[in-house]
Amino acid sequence: MTLADNILPKPLTDLELHQLAMNIVGKDLEKNNFEFLSVNSKLKKDPQFVCTKDKSLSFIIVKAVLYPKNPNIVEIYKLNELKIHAEKFNASLFYAGVGLANAENYEYPIFKDSDYVVNFNGIEKIC
Fold first, then answer.
1. Are residues 62 and 22 in contact, defined by beta-carbon separation less than 8 angstroms?
2. What's the pTM value of the predicted model, to 2 decimals?
3. If 0-12 CB within 10 Å is exposed, 13-18 middle and 19+ buried, where does residue 58 land?
4. Higher pLDDT, 10 or 2
5. How far apart are CA 23 and CA 65, in angstroms?
6. Which of 25, 63, 82, 88 has CA 20 to 30 A from 100's CA?
7. Cβ(12)–Cβ(111) under 8 Å?
C-alpha cells in the first residue's frame, strides 16, 4: 500500500453503487405500500425485489446508472427471459433505473462519504 492509497478517496465499487440504488428504490417501494417478499442484492441477478401490493405480485429490476447515461432507458440483460418468468407467476415486471452522479462534479466518480445526486423517477412497468 502506498501513501497515495491512504490519501486519495476510493470510488464506490459496482456493488456499492448497486446497493445504493437498491436502498433508494427500496425506500420508494415502502413509501408506496409495497410489501417485500424477497430481496436479492447480487449484481446481475434479476429481479432485485419481489413484492406485493394490493394482492398483485411484482418483480422489480434495479439498475444503478452513472452519469452521463440516461437511467430511464431500459437496458436489461435477458429481458425476454424475465418477461416469461413474470408471466409464469402472473406478476408485473418493473424497471427502476437510478441515475447517480457526484454532487461536486458530475464527471467525477462517486466516492465513499461524498455527496451525490440522484435521478430517480420511480418504477416503470415493463409488462
1. yes
2. 0.89
3. buried
4. 10
5. 14
6. 82
7. yes
Strand, coil or helix: 10: coil
Give the Cα separation of 25 and 35 in Å (integer). Answer: 13
Helix (H, G, I), strand (E, B) or coil at 88: helix
pLDDT for the residue 6: 60
d(CA 47, CA 79): 11
Residue 47, preceding peptide bond in cis (omega within 30° of 0) = yes
Q: What are the structural domains of the chain?
A: 9-125 (3.40.1350.10)
Give the number of other Cβ atoms within 10 Å of residue 96's Cβ. Answer: 25
The burial class, CB within 10 Å (0-12 / 13-18 / 19+), for 112 is exposed
Query: What pLDDT is stored for residue 44 in this prediction?
Result: 83
Whether 30 has a pLDDT exceeding 90, the answer reads: yes
Please give the grid coordinates belonging to residue 39: 430481496
Tens digits of residue pLDDT in 90-119: 999 999 999 999 999 999 999 998 899 999
